[in-house]
Prior knowledge:
With about 325 residues, the protein is α/β, with parallel strands linked by helices. It contains 12 helices and 15 strands. The chain has helices at about 5-10, 30-35, 40-50, 130-135, 145-150, 160-170, 185-190, 210-215, 220-225, 240-250, 270-280, 290-300; strands at about 55-60, 80-85, 90-95, 105, 110-115, 125, 155-160, 180, 200-205, 235, 255, 285, 305-310, 320, 325. Strands 1-15-13-7-9-11-12-4-14 form a 9-stranded mixed β-sheet, with helices on both faces. A two-stranded antiparallel sheet has the order 2-3. A hairpin with a 4-residue loop joins strand 2 and strand 3. It is globular, with a radius of gyration of 20 Å. The relative contact order is 0.22.
Amino acid sequence: MSRSQSLMDLKFDELPDPKRVWVGDPGSHEEGLGRLVLLTEERVREAAVQEIRTGRRVGLNWDMTRLEYVGLGRTPCEHKVVPLFGGIAFDDIYTFNPQQSSQWDGLRHWGMSSDSDSSAEQQRVWYGGTSKDEILDRSKDRIGIQHWAREGITGRGVLIDYVSWADKKGIEYSAFSEHTISLHDILEIARESSISFERGDILLVRSGATRDWETRMDVAAKKAYASSDSPKHAGVEASIDMLRWIWDTGIAVVAGDALSFEVYPQLGDIFLHDWFIAGWGMPIGEMFDLERLAEVCKELNRWSFFFTSMPLNMPGGVSSPSNAQAIF
């Protein structure tokens, strides 16, 4: 049994340091996979056999032009069509930041504070102990997105449709507020929908962000959100109980339609990005389009499916478009 397998098999409360579960030798493919080591060939095969029954497919990628007003100084998507050979053929040129649509936060995206007494930016450390200097050195590709691209992010997906559940319960909220989806909510939705969780699951949570952006926000509201120094959006609670449940359940990947999966700004001392990305090497998917997926799940009365995604094969890449779909 490898060290990664032995660590992954421990319960949360048994981990030597639950905030730093770093597997693999520095610079190795195993290190680059992080939590994806849970997506074994056996689990992927079992998921395909169990979940692909009809061949029905649902794309999970939000229209790349929908986030018209981008925050944090990020570059909006630009698409050009250019002629070749006098116009008998065409190419296109994309200029975009993956963070402005459906995308994966890779292991190079987010670091956590080191053990140093200083909390300055230079004291942050990335997964496996990777340093800021290593990430900025373009001759190095440690923990880059290319490791995920080798085999893809593939397995059993599960949808927690909080939006529909909240509607049924008469819970009114804005997806662009600090409305919190609690662990109790997730477990209650799972119970009512007869959802069981399996080790290696890819957990998707629908909070309503893409829906609200498209249907409930006018131009002024979108511009105000994009220019805000403290944008708010609903998401999953950040708590030790949530961390313990995700780890002990064996969730390999999390994703949602929110802009950061977890509620933001953080409401306590815990920020899930610190733990998931820098601590566990776990992908976080953001701004996935889960609207049609929710419709199909309701129609089929099935909340699990085969999930597949192929990130960009970019050595040293920080993030990637999701290129994801669900297959029933």
